Amino acid sequence: MIKKICGVALAGAALLAPSVPAHAADGWQRVGGGITGGLSGLVVEGRHGAAVDVLAVRDNKKPGQNRLVSVRYDPHAKPRVSPVDWPGEPPVDLEAIDAVPGRAREYVALASDGTAYRIRRERNAVRVLRVFKLPGVSRDGNYEGFALARLAHGKLVAVWADRGGDDRPAKLTAAEWNPRTSAFGKRDSARFRAPYPVADVRHVSDLKISAGGALTVSSASDPGDDGPYDSALYAAGHVAVGDHGRVRLEMAHVPDRLGSFSGHKIEALACPPKSGEGILGTDDENAGGSLTEAEFCRP
User: Fold this and answer.
1) Which pLDDT tens digits describe the chain residue by residue (299 residues)?
2) CATH numeric code, 22-295
3) Distances in Å between the alpha carbon of 137 and those of 63, 69, 96, 109?
4) Burial of 142 (0-12, 13-18, 19+ CB in 10 A)
5) Is residue 54 classed as helix, strand or coil in its secondary structure?
6) Quick check: 242 and 179 in contact, CB under 8 A?
7) H-helix or E-strand spanning residue 148
8) In this structure, are residues 254 and 265 in contact, taking their beta carbons and an 8 Å threshold?
9) Measured between alpha carbons, how far is 121 from 259 in angstroms, rounded to an integer?
10) From which residue to which does the signal peptide run (predicted)?
11) How far are the Cα atoms of 46, 172, 231, 255 from residue 218, in angstroms, in the given order?
12) Which of 161, 198, 265, 270 could make an SS bond with 229 (beta carbons 3.0 to 4.6 A apart)?
């Protein structure tokens, strides 16, 4: 069963009375103000009881604007927000981030043009280990989702997505990834169209892969810098590894809507290990960025 939290309707659940601290009356905690304060990707760094430490990317583009932020999210306390430095020339328009399995404090962050940055967290800054381009990216694509997972046969799999828009579905791509060389294996691709929202749609605004290969995506409407926004989460299918080691995408014929979220543009998903409850992040443009929790993570 999936919760209804803080006025957010989640599919297939009874209505539960939320326990919400006074500083987050609607269940969303503000972690940044204004158009430079949104969150466009999340990854879990650790857990301390009810509190979850996340590293988030921001899609800022100009010099001097923050690209990374560390947040301790606790549903019963104010969030602790700290900027994380990106030394040297900063990337432009970061849209996603995920952890490199088996490599402590190492991550891959993705910019909207398909440029990937392998980084290592070092106290209040990151060090760029490698920069590489995802294979097969389109010059007119806009990439908003990227995830890594170690699946069957020990294969380290990457999935990324061009967000699509309105009548153009999102395009997802999956391939084995070698973290030593940043090389990719043979690719498989699939399309995804969100049934909801229905206007100004980004069919994939973020995605995550579970340890069992379950593929969860967020979709969002974006009519402009002042909204109004709507978002949804979907169980979109699975990432599988065949008998011969080939990675393939198995998309649901009819995706299962896990939840609908009015008033926010969800662009970031994160799932703590072995937890059904994950963290959602928003980029609400002029209204800044916020976090909340919901039970959407799957085995």
Assistant:
1) 333 333 344 443 322 223 333 344 579 999 999 999 999 999 999 999 889 999 999 999 999 999 999 999 999 999 999 999 999 999 999 999 999 999 999 999 999 999 999 999 998 999 999 999 999 999 999 999 999 999 988 999 999 999 999 999 999 999 999 999 999 999 999 999 999 999 999 999 999 999 999 999 999 999 999 999 999 999 999 999 987 889 999 999 999 999 999 999 999 999 998 899 999 999 999 999 999 999 999 98
2) 2.115.10
3) 26, 27, 15, 16
4) middle
5) strand
6) no
7) strand 143-150
8) no
9) 32
10) 1-24
11) 23, 13, 7, 12
12) 265
Please state, in angstroms and rounded to a whole number, the distance separating the CA atoms of residues 232 and 249.
Answer: 21
d(CA 99, CA 110): 12
| DSSP-derived 3-state class of residue 226 | coil
What DSSP state is assigned to residue 263? T
Strands (E), 170-246: 170-178, 183-184, 188-192, 201-209, 214-221, 230-241
Cα separation, 174 vs 67, in Å, equals: 26
